[in-house]
Design goal:
heterodimer, A: mainly alpha, AhpD-like, 10 helices, 67% helix, globular, B: mainly alpha, 0% strand
Amino acid sequence: MAHIQLSQELPGIVGPLNFSPDTAKPLLELAEVLLRGPNTLTSAEREMIATYVSSQNDCKFCQCSHGAAAAEHLGGDYDLIDRLKLDYETAEVSDKMKALLAVAGKVQKGGKQVTSDDIARARRRGATDKEIHDTVLIAAAFCMYNRYVDGLATPQPTDRDSYREMGQRLAKEGYVRPRNPSLEAA
Amino acid sequence: MAHIEFDEGLPGIRGALAFSPATTKPLCELVEVLLRGPHTLTPAEREMIATYVSSQNDCHYCQSCHGATAAEHLGGRASDYDVISQVKQNYATAPVSDKMKTLLAIAGKVQQDGKQVTSDEVAAARRQGATDKEIHDTVLIAAAFCMFNRYVDGLATWQPQDPEVYCEIGKQTSRLGYVARNWKQPLQTIAKK
C-alpha cells in the first residue's frame, strides 16, 4: 500500500501526479523538454539514459515505462533496451552514447563522481556541451523521479503489457497532456 | 573548472540555469511551488528539508544557499544561522518541532533511496500530526534536491567558499523566490571582489 492515500488504480508516478497538480505541471514539463524537446540526441537515446539510470536506482516503474518508451521510439526493439540495462558497453548503441551513459551512471551515484576524463571521452566521441548538460540533467532528474515513485511506495505493475501500452502512449503523445483518472483509463 | 562552458562569474546552479533556459523554466517553477507555495509547513521548514538533504549529498553550493535562505526566513540573526547548522549536524537535538524531526527522518531515507522509507517512519510522522500533503511534499522536496545536487556537482560548477556570498543569496532568495529571476546577472558580493 502506498504511504499516502493515492488512487490505487493509478500506477507508479501517475498517482502522486494526480494527488499534487501544482507540482505535476513542472515535473511533466521538465520530462517533456528533456526527453522530447529539440535536441541532437534522439528521443530514443534520451529515454535510454532515463531507463539506464532508473534501472541503476532499481525503480521498477520508471525503468519499465521509459524502457518501453525508448523501445517504441525504435519501432518496438525491446531486446536492445534489455541488453542496454544489462551492459551498455556490448549493446548496439553508438560510441558517443556509451560515453554519455557512463557519465549518467556516475551522476546516479553522486554528481562529484563525474570526472574530467569521463567528459573528455564523451567529447572525443563527438558529444557537445548541450549533450553533456542534458545527459547530466536527465540522470539527475531520474534520481528525483525514481525517489518520488519509490519513496511514496506507489503501486507498480509487474506485467510487460501494461508498460508496452504506456510506452506506446509516451512515444506518441509525450508527457504534457491531460491527466486525470477517467482519461488515464481511456 | 566546470565540465562545460558557462558564463563567467555565475556560481553553482546559476551557470547551468543561464546555459539552458528551456529546462530552467520548469526547474524554477518546481522549486518555487515546493519551497514557497501555499502550505502548512513554513518556507523556513521546507528550506530546512532542502538544506538537510543537500548536506547529506555533500553539495556545498545547495546546502549553503538553502541553509542561508532558511535562516533568513527565520529572521537572519546569527542564532537563526546556528539553528540551520544544528539541523545539518543532528536534527534530533536541534530546536525544531517533533513533526519536523519525523519529516527530516523521511527526507534522509529518500536521500539514500526511495525504497528506504518505511511504514513505521510514515506512521511516526502521522502521530506528530503530519498530513498526506506534508508527507508527499517532504518526499518530493528530498527527491528534487537529489536532482539539484547532482546537477550542480555533476557539471563541476564553481562553488564559492566565502560564507558572505551565501548570506546575500539567502537574503535575495527569501525575498524574491525562484521564478522571474535573471540568473545571468552576477552576484553583487562577487562582483565587488
